[in-house]
Automatic annotation (TrEMBL):
The keyword Protein transport does not apply. The gene is Tppp3. One of its GO terms (molecular function) is tubulin binding. Residues 134-153 have a biased composition (Basic and acidic residues). One of its GO terms (biological process) is positive regulation of protein polymerization. Belongs to the TPPP family. This is Tubulin polymerization-promoting protein family member 3. Residues 130-153 are annotated as: Disordered. It comes from Aegithalos caudatus. It is found in: Cytoplasm, Cytoskeleton. GO terms for cellular component: microtubule. Keywords: Cytoplasm, Cytoskeleton, Microtubule. The keyword Cytoplasm applies.
Length: 176
């Protein structure tokens, strides 16, 4: 039973790494980039006995001749290929078990992901309370944009000159 749950978590790790970074991925096949990421994140590559070059060679060996991806069965074969290299002191079966334990239950790590922050000049430039001139007219007191009325000059078609004090009084002055 313990071996069965370990295989399920190994397959789950395969699926998580297979869909990593690819919005169209189904989780059934893994590309070379994600295979290399899995080996790096799960500490299969150690830089001495297993290098990134070894990982790429094993990927090329287990995939089909014209294929660019590997499925779950080929993934297990690739782990079998890397196991004796990674764990030289163990037998082939023990090495495969050890490499499966390294991979099982792991997820892709997001290291070095940049987060946007508004500090310094950006904060000053996006503060609408400090806007002047025509830009100031585009926002209300709360800083929310006024939309089209803030961008366009609304044309007064009343027939009067702008700032005329007695606008709209013509009809009352002219007797018919």
């Amino acid at each position: 039973m313990a071996e069965n749950t370990e295989m399920a978590s190994l397959e789950e790790s395969f699926r998580k790494f297979a869909i990593y970074g690819d919005t169209k991925a189904t989780g059934q096949e893994m590309n070379g980039k994600n295979w290399a990421k899995l080996c790096k994140d799960c500490k299969v590559t150690d830089g001495k006995s297993v290098t990134s070059t070894d990982v790429d060679i094993v990927f090329s060996k287990v995939k089909g001749k014209t294929a660019r991806v590997i499925n779950y069965e080929e993934f297990k074969k690739a782990l079998e290929e890397l196991a004796p290299k990674r764990f030289k002191d163990k037998s082939k079966e023990e090495a495969y078990e050890a490499i499966c334990q390294l991979v099982a239950g792991k997820e892709p790590i997001n290291v070095g992901v940049t987060k946007a922050k508004t500090v310094g000049a950006v904060e000053r430039l996006t503060d609408t309370s400090k806007y002047t001139g025509s830009h100031k007219e585009r926002f209300d007191e709360s800083g929310k944009g006024k939309g089209k009325s803030g961008r366009e000059n609304i044309v007064d078609t009343s027939g009067y000159v702008s700032a005329y004090k007695n606008a709209g009084t013509y009809d009352s002055k002219v007797k018919k």
